[in-house]
Amino acid sequence: MMLGASEHLYTLTICETPRRDPLQRNFFTTIEDCLNQALTTGMVPLRGDIIEDGVMYKSPQEVQRLRCTIEAPYLVENRIIMYRIAVEYHGQTWYVHRRFQDFMVLSDSLKKYFPKEVVPKLPSKTLFNNRSEEFVSKRSKGLQLFLNVLLESELLRNDRHVAVFLQTELAEEKLMEGIESSRKATNSFTSSEEDGQKEVDYLGKTEKHHVKPKDFDFMKIIGHGSYGKVILAKHLETGRHYAVKVLNKKHIMKRNESRHIMQERDILIKVLHHPFLVGLHYSFQTSNKLYFVLDFVNGGELFFHLQQNKRFSEKRSKFYAAEITCALDYLHSQGIIYRDLKPENILLDNTGHIVLTDFGLCKDGIKGSDTTSTFCGTPEYLAPEVIRKEDYDKTVDWWCLGSVLFEMLSGLPAFYSHNSKQLYDNILHQPLTFPQTNMSSSARNILTGLLQKDKAKRLGANGDGAEIKGHPFFHDINWNELEKRRVKPPFVPTVNGKIDLNNIDPEFTREPVPQSVYRSVGSTSVGMENNAFKGFSYAPSSSMRSDVY
C-alpha cells in the first residue's frame, strides 16, 4: 500500500516472493494506466515489489484518511494478550489481531530503514503485572498513540512493513486457529473475479504415496510471500530439514493464480538436478493449503549480504555472476525464461554457492527465438522492451544479470532512482554511467553489453549463455569446474549448524508458526486433488538431492 501526497490509495499486485507482501488488492487497471500514473505522480513501487499481467497500482478518486482504532484487548489461551485493531478506509472496515510482539517487530523493521527519531516510540515492556487491567489499558493507549503518529507520517505509512502489519491474512490465520472475535475479519480489497481454467497435463510421478503436514515439525518462519509463508521444517521420519512453502488456496483462487502455481510446480520438477537451482522434494495439499517441500538453504539472501556489505569485491561479484549465468543458461536450455532475477531470489548455501529460488514468474515453453509479452518482473530490473510492452525473449534475463552484477559492484541497481518517472526514463533513454569505484575495464565492458537497451545488440542475443561465458570478464573462470561446484567460493557464510538461522532476517524468525499449518484434515495424495489444483501433489520414491541436510 502506498498513500500519495493527496491521500490517494495505491495498491500493488505481486506474486509469491519473500518479503514483498502487499496490503490487499483494491483497484485494477491496465499497464498503460499504471505507467501513466507512475509518470504523472512520480510514485514508484517499493524496492522488490512485483508488477504482473497488467495489474500494478492505480490512484482512484480522492478518498478518506486511513484510520486504525485499537478496540478491547482480549486474552488467548490465558496467557497472550491480543489487540483487535479496526482498520477504516474509504468507507470499508476490516479487523486485524496483533500481539505486542507484532508491534515490536514492526517498530524494529522501520528502524532499519528510517532514522530512529522518525519512528514513534512504543510503550515500555515489563515483566511483572503485565496482565493487570490498569497495565493493559495504559499499554492500549500507548499503542494507539504509536499507530496515530505512524499514520500521520506520509513517509512511514507508505512503507511495506506497515502494509503487511495492517493486512488481514495474518488475522485470518489466527481466526482459523480458534481465536474468537466478535466479528470475522474481512478482506475488503480482494478481487473475486474468476477466469476459465484450461485442462492441463502436469508433470510428475503419480505414486500412491501420502505426504501430510503431520509428517513434519514446523519449526521457524523464514520467509513471507503473497499467498503464505516459508517455514523451516523437519521431516519426522528422515530427520532432514526443508524449507516448506505453505500457500493459502483461497488467496490463490481469488487472484486467479492457480495456473501459475501449477506451472511453478512443473518447473521445479523439470529442473530437479541442477546444482544452482533450488530443488523440490515433495508437493502436497490439504483442503485449504498447498505445500512445496524445498531445499533448506541457510546462507542468506544475496540481498541480505549486500545490506551487510553495501557492495562486493569484483572477485566475489564475478563468482556469483558466473554461477547465476550457469543457472540461467540451463533454464534457457529447458525452454524457460526466469524473468525475476534479483538479489532477493538468489540464496547462498552454507558453503557459499548460489541457489536460485522462486520460479513463480517463469515462462515455460520458449523454444529458439520464441517471444512472450506478459508484463512482469521487479521495477528496478525491468528491461526496456518489457516497459515498452514489446514482445521479448530470453535476453531479458541477461539484462537482469547486468543489473544485479552492477548492483553487486556498486551497491545499487543500474539506472536506479526513487522517482518512478526518472527510473523508467533512465532505463528507456539514459546512458549507462558508472560510479566512482575501482571497476575494471572488462567489468565495465560486460555491463555495457548486458545493459544494452536494444535486445538484438545485447550480450547473449547471439549464442545465449555461451556468449556470456566467452566474455573477457570471465577469462579466469573454469566453467567445467564451476558447474560441478568445484570452484572455491570467495566467501563462506557464517553458519553454525545445519539449522542455524543467523543469516535469515529476524523479521521472519520472530513470528510464531501458526498451528493451522499442521492441519491434515482434507489432506490429499496424488489422484485425490480438487479440480483447481489437480496434479499438484508430487511424492517421489526417494529424495533426489543428496546435499540436503
TrEMBL record:
Identify the residues that the record assigns to the Protein kinase domain, covering every copy: 216-474
Q: What are the alphabetically sorted keywords of the record?
A: ATP-binding, Kinase, Nucleotide-binding, Phosphoprotein, Serine/threonine-protein kinase, Transferase
Tell whether Ribosomal protein is among the UniProt keywords: no
InterPro entries per the UniProt record, alphabetical: AGC-kinase_C, Kinase-like_dom_sf, Pkinase_C, Prot_kinase_dom, Protein_kinase_ATP_BS, PX_dom, PX_dom_sf, Ser/Thr_kinase_AS
Q: Does the keyword field hold ATP-binding?
A: yes
| Gene Ontology molecular function terms on file | ATP binding; phosphatidylinositol binding; protein serine/threonine kinase activity
Any Pfam family hit: PX
Q: What is this protein called?
A: Serine/threonine-protein kinase Sgk2
Organism per entry: Galendromus occidentalis (western predatory mite)
